[in-house]
Amino acid sequence: MSDSRNLLRTQQFPAVLLLLAAALGLVLANTPAFGPIDAVLGFHIAVPGTAIDLSVAHWISDGLLAIFFFVVAMELQFELTRGELNSLSKALQPAIAAAGGVLVPILIYLMIAGGDQTARGWPIPTATDIAFALGVLAVFGKGLPPAVRVFLLALAILDDIIGIIFIAVLFAHDMNWLYLLLAVVGVVVFGALSRMLPTKHSRLVVAAMVIVGVLVWALMISSGIHATIAGVMLGLAMAQTPAMPTRHALDPWVNGAILPIFAFAAAFVIIPAVSPSELSPAFFGIAVALPVGKIIGITAFGWVAMRIGPRDKGPALTITDLLAAGALGGIGFTVSLLLANLAFADDPAVRDQAILGVLVGSLIALVLSGVVVSWRAAWYRRATKTVA
C-alpha cells in the first residue's frame, strides 16, 4: 500500500494516469457505452434540506475538484511564503513570463474565435497543468539545471493563481452576499482551528475542521461562486504546520482518484461527425492558442524578463530554456477543461468542441514539450561531460 501511495506522489505516474483517464473517457463516449455512462453522469443527487441538487458530473467538477484546489492552495501558500515566490525579486521574472503566457493565448484565441458565440472562451487557453508539466519535465528533463524546474514551477503556480481568479470573478452568478459572508466566516474558523494543531485533542479538531470545510463548500456553492473557490480559500487559510502533512496525505487520493475521475468525466464527449471546416472556431482557437500562444508568450516575455535586473548579471535561462518552458506551459488540461465547462455551460455543442480543443492543444504541447525538453536536457548532459 505504501509503495502504491509513493508511486502516486511521483511526478511521472500521475501524469500518465491522467492522460489514460482522459483517453478512456473520449474513447468510451464514442462507443455504444455512451448511453449508460452518460445516464450515470447526468443522474442528480440532492442534499436533503438544502437547495443543493447536482448531477454526478457536477459533483465531480464542483465537489471532488474542490479537494484538488484545496491541495493546490496549500502549495501556493507555501511557495508564496517560504518557497520560490516568497519575494518580489523571485516572483518578478516568472510573473512577467506568466503574463505573456496568458495574454498571447488570449489574443490568438480572440483572433480565431472572437465571434459572438465563442468569444467568451478566451480564458480557456490561459492555464498550465502543473502536474502534467512537471511530469513531462521529470520524464524527459534529466540533466536540466534546477533553474529550469524552479522557473517552470513558479510559472505554473502563477498560472494557477490567474486561473483561480478567472473562475472566481468571471463565472460567479446570482450572487448571494449573505452566504458568501458566512462562507468567509467559516474560512476564518477553519484557519483558527488549524492553528490548534497539533494538540492532544487533534482528532476532535480535525473532525471539526472537516465539518466546517464541508459547510464552507456548501455555502460557497449556494452563494453563486464556483465551489472550487472554497477549496482555494480553505487551503490558503490553513496553518502551515499541519498544511504540508495534510497535502502529503491527500496527494495519493488527488493524483490517483480525483484528477483521473475528473479527466474521464470532462473528456467524455462525442467527437463531432463533421468536416474540419464545420468545427466551431472555439475548437481551433483553443487547439492553436494553447501550444502556440504559450510558446510565443512565455518565450518572448520571459526573454524580456531575464533582462530586468542588475546589468552585471546575465539571464538565468537561455532562449532555448524558455522555449522548453513555453512548450510545457501549453499543457492546459485540468484547469483548461474546467474553464471550458464553465465558459460554455449553456451551449453543450460548443462546450464539447472546446473540450476537444483542450485535449488536442494539450496533446500537441505534450509531444512538442517532450521533444524540446529532451533535446535541451541532452545538450546539458553533453555540456556537463565536456566540462568534466
TrEMBL record:
Coiled coil: none annotated. Its main location: membrane. Keywords: Antiport, Cell membrane, Ion transport, Membrane, Sodium, Sodium transport, Transmembrane, Transmembrane helix, Transport. Pfam families: Na_H_antiport_1. It catalyses: Na(+)(in) + 2 H(+)(out) = Na(+)(out) + 2 H(+)(in). The keyword Transmembrane helix applies. It is found in: Cell inner membrane; Cell membrane. InterPro entries: Na/H_antiporter_dom_sf, NhaA. It is a multi-pass membrane protein. The chain crosses the membrane at residues 56-74, 95-115, 121-140, 147-171, 177-197, 204-221, 227-245, 257-275, 281-304, 316-342, 354-375. Na(+)/H(+) antiporter that extrudes sodium in exchange for external protons. Belongs to the NhaA Na(+)/H(+) (TC 2.A.33) antiporter family. This is Na(+)/H(+) antiporter NhaA. The gene is nhaA3.
